[in-house]
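User:
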Amino acid sequence: MSNWLADWVADQLRSGAARRSAPAGVGGDAMYVYGSIGVDAALTSTGDIWVGTYDFDTVEGTAATVTWHRAVGLERLGFIVIAARRFPVLGGLLPARPANAAGCPACRATGDWHLFSADRKESLRIRGMICKTCGGLGWQS
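Assistant: Predicted structure:
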């Protein structure tokens, strides 16, 4: 990974454009790029994505325990796609679409998750949720 990412992450943290994250056992700078109920994602200055999951079934007054893991493959791509919506420069971390790549049939080439009818003629597009087949890219090679 080139130095541009490390410099960019440091600048985002310094300027307050992003919030620092500290996934357990990960050295260097990391910033939050996604958060929702039960899951957070952080981008490190080396280009890794770390995903923290936690359970809300805790006893009142106790803190939830976050479990972190390094995202790979489609999971990593999906979180970078989400992060690039807020920070467009991060689109540079995504692979270029090959000329022979076909549109993803699972998301109708949108990158968004779809729920299909039994006959697959109609679907409900859920914007903001990433297609599990293409990682949100909208294509497959």
